[in-house]
Design goal:
Number of domains: 1
Helix content: over 70%
Structural class: mainly alpha
Strand content: under 5%
């Protein structure tokens, strides 16, 4: 059981997969939802401060390096585009927009991209973390409901 929870924790830390992949994994393997949900949120939020303070610097450093340059440039462009789009649409409600950006479980809209966008936009750290955390909680609720419905339907078909 510990091993499955560890996988939930680690999967929730992976960029692009994040909590959106960890919750369906937990439900698919019949792990209790509440502990899985809490573990996935912790795993998804753990990298946020590091992303906020260091990711931009690391990406700027590596964007012109041989092997990693293209990927780092892609990440920077993705973060800048997401940040500018968020800022253009949100105006004064930037933190609410960040919450919704992170909370709606679509590819490329998780805590990693949202935090990178907040860093690139030089948003306030504490307010950004609260918005990202609320977004992660919202995404977890949505994924839990969708996954429970999907896996419930699959088990009904058996």
């Amino acid at each position: 059981m510990f091993g499955k929870y560890l996988i939930v924790f680690l999967v929730s830390m992976v960029p692009l997969i994040e909590l959106r992949g960890a919750i369906p994994y937990a439900i698919g393997f019949s792990l209790p939802l509440l502990p899985s949900y809490i573990i996935a949120i912790i795993g998804n939020m753990l990298p946020v401060p590091f992303i906020f303070f260091f990711a931009r610097k690391v990406l700027e450093w590596g964007k012109d390096k041989p092997v990693i340059g293209r990927f780092f440039t892609f990440c920077l462009k993705k973060g800048e585009a997401g940040g500018k789009k968020l800022q253009a649409k949100a105006g004064r409600g930037l933190y609410i927009a960040l919450l919704l950006f992170v909370g709606i479980p679509l590819p490329g809209t998780g805590a990693w991209t949202g935090t990178l966008a907040a860093s690139i936009l030089d948003m306030d750290f504490k307010k950004s973390v609260v918005a990202v955390m609320a977004g992660v909680v919202l995404a977890g609720i949505i994924m839990g409901l969708v996954s429970a419905g999907l896996f419930g339907a699959i088990s009904f078909l058996k």
